[in-house]
């Protein structure tokens, strides 16, 4: 399904002193820090200086095409970063291809020393030595005491947003909370081409059945807790009925309806939506389409008497997106 939706996903894990070597990718992405803290360097296309930002759990970072990044963990806790992206222009649908600048699999290991020397204005022996010095690939371990650039708070502007500290878009007591990433609070997602949201569903609460009404896929990674998910597609066919827990990933195709119910310990997830300013239509609650339809249409559509229609429309007049557990 990821391949069909031209969506890729990957995870980066760094132990203390682990450095993910500089690279660029064939896909635009959003990175989300699942655990730990560290430092990231970001070089935007045609930029003359890298942006160096401190990252921690809850951070979302927008990474457009051709951005060069490196990631470093100088803390004892493992740093875990999740990457989502569109693979519409990638070499392989549903997969990221990374191009490392250094290391044993770095792009300059394949160029002849003549080309490297000419490009960098070095003698050929100097170019050969420089390219061959880093024998590691992808991730390397640095020595204790290694000094890397200090993060700058101003570099986060427009690139990174901490979803756990951001202003809530939805906040329902004992129901749940939502932070939506879009071009207003994270402008660079406009270049990335999709938005995201962080949702925290309280214990035994329900998230209203709904769908993305702007032809977007939803790809969801469960961060914490557990619960139940059902997805319904065309012709009234249920395509997914499952129990999810931390570490699970699932995708909701375009226009398919999804609903979730949290277990007693709650359910938290991070999703990307393949549009920078996602819009959802809900099929339960006070903002649902049922509240907009006329009584006569509802009676005819459900083939019920007026008293049944009145009972139906009298429910969920105050609840919006999240529904508290029954008493």
TrEMBL record:
GO terms of molecular function: nutrient reservoir activity
Keywords noted in UniProt: Disulfide bond, Seed storage protein, Storage protein
CDD domains the record matches: cupin_11S_legumin_C, cupin_11S_legumin_N
Origin superkingdom: Eukaryota
Cupin type-1 domain residues: 1-128, 166-310
Pfam families from the UniProt entry: Cupin_1
PANTHER family reported for this sequence: OS01G0976200 PROTEIN (PTHR31189:SF62), OS03G0336100 PROTEIN-RELATED (PTHR31189)
Family: Belongs to the 11S seed storage protein (globulins) family.
Protein name, as recorded: Cupin type-1 domain-containing protein
């Amino acid at each position: 399904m990821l391949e069909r939706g031209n969506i890729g996903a990957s995870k980066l894990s760094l132990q203390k002193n682990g450095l993910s070597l500089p690279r660029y990718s064939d896909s635009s992405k959003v990175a989300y820090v699942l655990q730990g803290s560290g430092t990231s360097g970001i070089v935007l296309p045609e930029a003359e200086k890298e942006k160096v930002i401190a990252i921690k759990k809850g951070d979302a970072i927008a990474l457009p095409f051709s951005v060069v990044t490196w990631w470093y963990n100088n803390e004892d806790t493992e740093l875990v970063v999740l990457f989502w992206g569109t693979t519409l222009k990638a070499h392989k649908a549903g997969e990221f291809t990374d191009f490392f600048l250094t290391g044993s699999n770095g792009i300059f290991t394949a160029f002849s020393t003549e080309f490297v020397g000419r490009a960098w204005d070095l003698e050929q022996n100097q170019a050969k030595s420089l390219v061959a010095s880093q024998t590691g690939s992808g991730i390397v371990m640095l020595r204790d005491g290694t000094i890397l650039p200090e993060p700058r708070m101003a570099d986060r502007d427009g690139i990174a947003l901490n979803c756990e500290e951001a202003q809530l878009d939805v906040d329902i007591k004992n129901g749940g909370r939502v932070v939506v990433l879009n071009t207003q609070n994270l402008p660079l997602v406009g270049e990335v081409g999709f938005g995201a949201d962080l949702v925290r569903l309280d214990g035994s609460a329900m998230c209203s059945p709904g769908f993305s009404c702007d032809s977007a896929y939803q790809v969801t990674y469960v961060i914490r807790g557990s619960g139940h998910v059902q997805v319904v597609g065309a012709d009234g066919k249920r395509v997914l009925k499952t129990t999810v827990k931390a570490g699970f990933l699932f995708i909701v195709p375009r226009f398919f309806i999804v609903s979730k119910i949290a277990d007693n310990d709650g359910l938290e997830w991070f999703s990307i939506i393949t549009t920078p300013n996602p819009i959802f239509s809900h099929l339960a609650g006070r903002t649902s389409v049922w509240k907009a339809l006329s009584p006569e249409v509802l009676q005819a559509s459900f083939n019920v008497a007026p008293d049944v229609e009145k009972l139906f429309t009298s429910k969920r007049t105050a609840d919006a997106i999240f529904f508290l557990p029954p008493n």
